[in-house]
Amino acid sequence: MDFISKILFIPEKPAKTIPVKALTYVSKDTPPVFIYTEFNSPIKKNDVLIKVNAAALNPIDLQLMHSPLSVTAPGKKGLGRDFCGVIEEVGVNQQGKWAVGDRVCGMFIHLAGQGSIATYVTLNPDTDRIIKAPPNLTDEEAAAFPLSFGAAIRSLRYTTLDPNSWVLILGGNTATGHYAIQLAKNYFNVAKVVVTASSKNESFLRELGADIVVDYKKNANLVEALKYVIADNQDPTNGDFTYGTSETDTNPQKFQIIFDCVGGTEVLFKATELLNPKAMGSVFVTIVGDSMTTSSQLGGPGAYLYHPSMIGRRLLSSAGINGLNYVVESVSPGDWLNESYEILLNGTVRVIIDSVYEWDKWKEAFSKLESRKVRGKIVLHISDWYLYLIVVSLVVVIGASHTLFYYYYN
Asked: How far is 41 from 165, CA to CA, in rounded Å?
């Protein structure tokens, strides 16, 4: 019968189905909703089935959902990129690499299709990279780091950093900025980490490893304030600072990298005045683009759609025509995820979580993310309590029916 089925291309019937609940959206004009679907078991031979315990929110979730681009991919699209969970089934080609019971974490790189805010996900670990979750991290912490950590470490690797290097991070209090500060100071062991942020976050960012915090709200001319920093090696808010008069050092230390986590062009257009010469491998890396981040406009390579000038700038940089190494970073799978295991296990970098919500409170979680009043990541705790409720309800109903039947006939 199996031979005939293969000859006639009759699909095999699944041995069982696995019920799945997932948060999805269709377009920017329709609110997210929970849907109920199924996965077939056995799963595909290259996949693993993961029961999700926690999923983190990222600005890209809002941007994809609210962007006009949402209509370009028809049908329901999942929300969530980062996750932590436990493997419950392993495809035949992944056996020996992964095992049932492995606690894993990782991220999706797909802009459509399933998301991590779901009771179960299936993925191919060879393309959607996962790692065993560091044992010193909770499920929520393991779900919170991948996307932001990946953006930070990949961006810092566009240049060579050493104990003499200075690093400038624009947007030190973003989730990616938190990792960039810690990686620059504790992993790459650079000499100086300078960040831009509101002064209310200064003590926290210094605790993470920032040496100088420049308040972008108090310094109307941010570039001149940063020139003061590299000339005088001190925070411009700590002394009498007059723009353009801080030339106390005739050969100031400059930055080896400017890492932009907030967007805009104020610093970009003057970057060559703040960076080491291009020949030294200095670089300007942005994960946002020419506009400040919003909840409806994509950052990173997605910003090319809104700012074609970024394409020209990138091409000129690649051709070596202009005086700036310019990179628009887009996080993709790579060895950095394996590298993150040891970094997090050793405590070189710690995961900052703003808050944890039960996933039925997703509206409140997304509302807080959109408010931008967040320090660290927002995480949803994924629970399939509804399945247990259904089972318990069925048991109660069946039990009551049997009891009534017994008393009726006796």
From this structure: 52
pLDDT given for residue 401 in this prediction: 53
**Phi, psi torsion values for 270, nearest 5 degrees:** -115, 15
**Do residues 280 and 325 lie in contact, with contact meaning Cβ atoms separated by under 8 Å?**
no
Contact criterion met (CB below 8 Å) for 299 and 263: yes
CA distances from 238 to 140, 173, 228, 235 (A): 38, 20, 11, 6
Cα–Cα dist 209/181, whole Å: 6
Q: Helix, strand, coil % (nearest 5) of the chain?
A: 35, 25, 40
Match 């309800």 to its residue by tokens.
Answer: 393
Q: Is the Cβ–Cβ distance between 228 and 246 less than 8 Å?
A: yes
DSSP string over 54-110: EEE--HHHHHHHHSGGGGGS-S-EE---EEEEEEEEE-GGGBTTB-TT-EEEEE---
Residue 320, token pair as written in the block: 């070596």
The span from the CA of 81 to the CA of 328, in Å, is: 20
Residue 161 to residue 193: CA distance in whole angstroms? 12
pLDDT on residue 98: 98
> With 0-12 CB in 10 A as exposed, 13-18 as middle and 19+ as buried, what is 367?
exposed
Residue 261, helix vs strand vs coil: coil
Strands 130-132 and 103-107, by their bridges, are antiparallel
Q: Which residues pair with 54 in a beta bridge?
A: 84, 381
For the chain, 410 residues long, the average pLDDT of each consecutive 10-residue run is: 55 78 89 94 96 95 78 82 97 97 91 90 93 98 97 97 98 97 98 96 97 92 94 69 50 91 94 96 94 76 77 87 91 88 97 97 95 94 63 43 51
Largest alpha-carbon pair distance within the chain? 103
User: CA 216 to CA 223: how far, in whole Å?
Assistant: 10
Which residues lie below 8 Å from residue 286, measured CB to CB, with a gap of 6+? 259, 260, 263, 268, 300, 327, 328, 329
| Euclidean distance between CA atoms 23 and 69, whole angstroms | 19
Nearest to 307 by CA among 280, 332, 283, 326: 326
